[in-house]
Amino acid sequence: MRFWLGAASAVLLAVVAAATIKNEYVFFAGYTIVMYIVLATAWNILGGYAGYVNFGTPAFFGLGAYTAAVLFKATAAPLALQILAAAVMSGLLGFGAGLLTLRLRGIFFAIATIALVVIMETLFINWRYAGGATGLQLLRPPPLAPFESYIKMLFVVMALMAVAAVAIARYIETSWIGRGLRAIRDSEEAAECSGVSTLKLKVFACTVSGALMGAAGAPMPMYLNFIEPASTFNLNYAIGALASPMIGGMTHYLGPVIGAVILSTLQQVVTVTISGEMNVMVVGVLLVVFVVAAPQGILGLVSKLRSGRRP
Coil, strand or helix: which one is 115? Predict the structure, then answer.
């Protein structure tokens, strides 16, 4: 009950902010922060719960973005249909990639996910209908009522998607699926001996994770009014999606949310005050600090401090 009250409050706050705040930059920056909440939460379903480190975030994100852009170019489909199609396509990619790669472990799986990014980028570089290497220019349609600008509408839509992603991650974590994924993370051999269908659970996690990442990418073409392969399949998306759960904590569904808010907000501040080129350095410094000082993330550190205070 507390979770749903918090989720409803977050969505209501986003709607109120869109109705009252006039500065458009707040929503440009806020959109990025909320988008990384979705990406980090999606990454954590496979990387945090199951322990499979995935660097393929840009592949799913980019496929979702291009699905939405091509669908809009071909049929002028509404945003809701673009997001649904992006989630389906990226979920199918996650299913197929999971069947092919999840038998690999450790560094071999990580390398395979990086290869997936390269493959997807190469495909879209050579697809002329989607703009090829030069990209595709898009014209935003008018915003839907009661929003006065399309950026504000995208911000509220992304906030709804973030709530949905966290709700899905929470359900997985507290269900038998989450218990099976944690067993895989601790010892895959022991999980199999205990009767856990390890491959099915891993493929399921990869499918759900990919679908959420694709949905997060769907509004990006309209957010930028432009899409091209080099920036859409940028590995910075993988770094941000991986770093956020490590900072916030990978064992709880709120960990990626906390990490994404801290990391993305700091990156936006650094971009405005210093330079956008400093973003990667910010991620690196925070990762080093948390790996050394709090390897279980902020939530793990808080839990440790609480347990230390108990008599």
Answer: helix
